[in-house]
Amino acid sequence: MLHINVADLRRSYTLAGLDKEDLTEKPIDLFEKWLKECLDAGLYDPNGVVVSTVNKEGQPHSRMVLLKNYDENSLVFFTNLGSRKAHDIADNPRVSMLFPWYYLERQVIFTGTAEKLSLPEVLKYFHSRPRDSQIGAWASHQSSRISARSALESKFMELKEKFSKGEVPLPTFWGGFRVTFDSVEFWQGRENRLHDRFMYTRTGSDSWDIARLAP
After folding, report:
1. pLDDT by residue (tens digit) across 95-124?
2. Which of 1, 2, 47, 137 makes a 20 to 30 Å CA pair with 201?
């Protein structure tokens, strides 16, 4: 086995700081400001977010998905409802969502409760996707075992022919989740590992407690 010395992989974070005067009254406003800065910096997949769930045995799982909508109280993503994440959420709706914006030496972590989106919300987004992505949703029974990639590609081509005319219907096993968040942490890397961390914790329907955390 090639053993890479990861202990010596390090760098100093010097791009920016985060002070109390930089904070906004609501966390979503600071999130949106940072998201725009990611877009302006040309980051790949700035809406990529690590969703962590815990199953009924207490085993956590994490995976990257794409944020597809947000408002001042919630974040939205879509998935196969037969996936491991969907099964985990059915058993335990508490989730964490981490935006790893390493290029800007930043992280944002949301924690909250997930619930299924309504059928009209799912249908509207599904039909906004590229047609091949709609067909791909039909072809993949996410998290199930498959014999080979060729089987997946063959199924895709079969469905592409089947749905060659007219609208691609919404699969009954495809949907989305809205995560209503109750805490948000903003992390900005700093020199000497003295990072800036601020935690927003919901105290009411429209109010937040803000605290600086030690790094």
Report:
1. 999 999 999 999 999 999 999 999 999 999
2. 47
